[in-house]
Each structure stands twice: as C-alpha cells, then as structure tokens.
Amino acid sequence: MTRLTMMLAGAGVASGLMVGTAPAARTSAVQMQVAGVAAAPGLDMRGSTGNPLAADSSILVQGGSLRTWSYRSPSVEQVQVVLSTEGRPLDADIELWQGPDNTPCKMRVYVENGQLRPFSAVVETPRGPNTIAIRNIGQVEFPLAANVVADNVDAPSAECLDTRMTIQGGALRTYPFDPTVDSVQVLLKTDGRPLNARIELLQGPNNNKQVIELYTEDGLDRPFFCILETPGSGNVVRVVNTAPVEFPMTASVVPNSINEQMGYEAVLGGDVVLGGDAGW
After folding, report:
1. How many helices (H) and strands (E) does the chain have?
2. What is the DSSP code string of 212-273?
C-alpha cells in the first residue's frame, strides 16, 4: 500500500468518526434539555386548572372579554349570577338578552375586593329562551371568575318580603348595620313600571366598597334580589332611586347572616369616651 493510499484511508476513518459522533452528541444534548425541562422545580404543567379563580363550575373571564350562558327551556324562570376575584377589584357588565336587540335587564357592578365581597344576585328569566351575558370591562390584569346556575337559587326571607319601604323617584334611603351582620339581603320591586336604581355599600364616609347600577324594564315581572357581603364594622347600604318622580319603587334591606362571635370594634367617631368615668 502506497503512502497516498494510507493517507486517504486514514482521512476516511477520521471523517467517519467525526460524522458518526456529532449526531450522537447533539442527540444527547437535546435529551438532556428535555429532561431538564421535565424535572425543573417549580414549573406547573397543569395549565389553567391550577388557577385559584377557576373553580369547578366557574369560568374565568379575562379583562375585556365576554362570556354568555344560554337557557332555551322556558321552565328556567330565574338564575343566580356569582362573580368573584382573587382579591383584585371587580368591574363587570351583566345583561339579560331575550330575543334580538331586547335587553330587559342590565346592571353595572363594581367591587373593591372580589374575594372579600363576592357579587351574588338573582336575575329573573321568565318566558325563555334567555341568555346571560357577562362582560369583564376591567383591564387585562383584573380577571374574574363567573358562575351562573339555575338550581338552588337564593330566595328572599319572609322578613325581607314583609319589610318593604317606598322610595320615590330621585330619593334615597340608608340602612346602617351592626358589625355582627356578615351579609344583608336587598330586594327592589315596582308596580310594573321600569326600575332604575343604584345600590351602594359604604364603609366609612364616601368609601364605596361595592356599587350596583341597575335597570329593569318591569320591576314587578323582574324584581331584583341580591346578597351583599358586609364584613367588618361601619357598613351602610344606600339605595338610590335614579328614576324620575313618576317611577317609585319599594326596597327591603334586612340582615341575611349574623355572626354572634363578632366583637364590636372601635370605630372612628363612635361612642368611645376619652377621660370618662367608665371603670372607676
């Protein structure tokens, strides 16, 4: 074998080793990267199911998006709408659609803390089919969890039905509650006329914790009922009839749940006496 033949054979062996080993090295590197991703600590591979807002029957509504719930059966006469967040503000529009371009009920809801004070209201849906539309009008950083159910709907108590007060158009009524009251029932009705109202939950002077702006085309056929969470002290519910004087309405605001273990906290401007003779 000449020297030229030996040199060519040696080059072929060297090139074969290089060609054969390079893919193996790249393959092992890729395998190591995949294994590293799978074993990376703290990486959640569950997707959206790990989100605390996504409950079993709730739907996550991102900021600026719209979700609808349709009920074709005429036997569904009322549904309950529950909105909550993970502690961020809640700002949403809720509408009842019945037929093309017909919105017999709509409301605007704002809650300062959707986890501490989730929104819960009953929407009357007689004469189906009906569609509930919920639009998150907040920014993309403020998602909300929405749930609409047609069974086990909350109903007003006998006390709520019996203690109704008339509010003339343009007038308002306030209802203060003790710190032991954890939640209250609010029921608004008319004699068949349109219902325009604003419900505010205040805690302190001009400190709105929750605001509901409501419109119903028939306050007798579609009364409004909701439950407001009132944790802490100094809670006041203010109901304003935003309609003209020709459209009165009746309002009933009563306690829903009472926590007897809740102690009375000191409230600024309350009945705390400094320098008095208490305890002497």
Report:
1. 2, 16
2. EEEEES-TTTS-EEEEEE--SS-EEEEEEE-S-TT--EEEEEEEEEE-TTPPPPP-TTSS--
The pTM for the full model equals 0.73
Angle at alpha carbon of residue 58, lines to 55 and 59, rounded to 5°: 115
DSSP-based three-state secondary structure for 108: strand
Q: What is the pLDDT along the chain (280 residues), one digit of tens a residue?
A: 445 444 445 444 444 434 444 444 444 443 333 333 333 333 333 333 333 344 468 899 999 999 999 999 888 999 999 999 999 999 999 999 998 889 999 999 999 999 999 999 999 999 879 999 999 999 999 999 999 999 889 999 999 999 999 999 999 999 999 999 999 999 999 999 999 999 999 998 889 999 999 999 999 999 999 999 999 999 999 999 999 999 999 999 999 999 877 655 555 555 544 444 444 4
